[in-house]
Amino acid sequence: MSDLSGRTTIVVGASRGLGRGIATAFAEAGAPVVAVSRSSVTYPEPSNGAGTIQPEVFDAGDATVPALLLDRHEPEIIVVVAGATPHMRPLQEQTWETFSTNWETDVRITFHWLREVLLTPLRPGSRVVVVSSGAALGGSPLSGGYAGAKSMQRFVTGYAQDEANRAGLDITFTAVLPRFSPTTGVGRPAVRAYAARSGRSIEEFLKASGPLVSPESAGAALVELVQADAAAVAPAYVLTGAGLQKLP
Description:
The chain is α/β, with parallel strands linked by helices and 248 residues long. The chain has a single domain (9-181, 214-246), classed as 3-Layer(aba) Sandwich (Rossmann fold). Helix content is 41%, strand content 17%. The protein has an eight-stranded mixed sheet with strand order 3-2-1-4-5-6-7-8, with helices on both faces. α1 (17-28) packs across α9, α2 packs across α4 and α4 (101-119) packs parallel to α6. The longest helix is centred in the middle third of the chain and has 22 residues, at 146-167. It is globular and about 50 Å long. It starts with 8 loop residues before the first strand and ends with a strand. The mean pLDDT is 95. This is NAD(P)-dependent dehydrogenase (Short-subunit alcohol dehydrogenase family). InterPro entries: NAD(P)-bd_dom_sf, SDR_fam.
């Protein structure tokens, strides 16, 4: 799928942060992008004039939305980025409601969209990328159930790939787990909280975290991922500022 021209791409959760960077990158690569978000957002025109971005204002967690948008746009690429900002507090200061926020949003959204991809189904050769989090690998003690929810997103992506294979659907599902992205709505409060917990300044904390993910670098990495031959795509990747690394 090296040429994205004419390959409709739905980015779920495209209004800000990594989702916005991903939507912009796909449009720059020539794709007609459908940018799904809960609020109306203006997007820049692609600098090279190759692709487009069409906003669709919907609640991505509404179970009826995936079928509606898949039928309306018939995409070949779907990127699921949408989710909630976790409540940054230690375990004893969480309530069940704050602890479970990302299960009720991030996991719910992934479930509804991947379920509908399998039921529709997308056309052969399609790609689905679920943006999880590096927290799924090492935990996140200050964000309640966030790490578990992000791990579940990775599992659900794998389950969907297995079902697609069993049904002979020729759809490639991949989970991408980004490390800290300090400029995003999710990353910014996390960086502040963990820097304070470690007794370091934000600058010191980030310096020790290695190459950082930005919306722009995430967008470039995902474009490269969907352009790769499907046979070479791994079930999951960790994403740092240095790019994608396959997970075992």
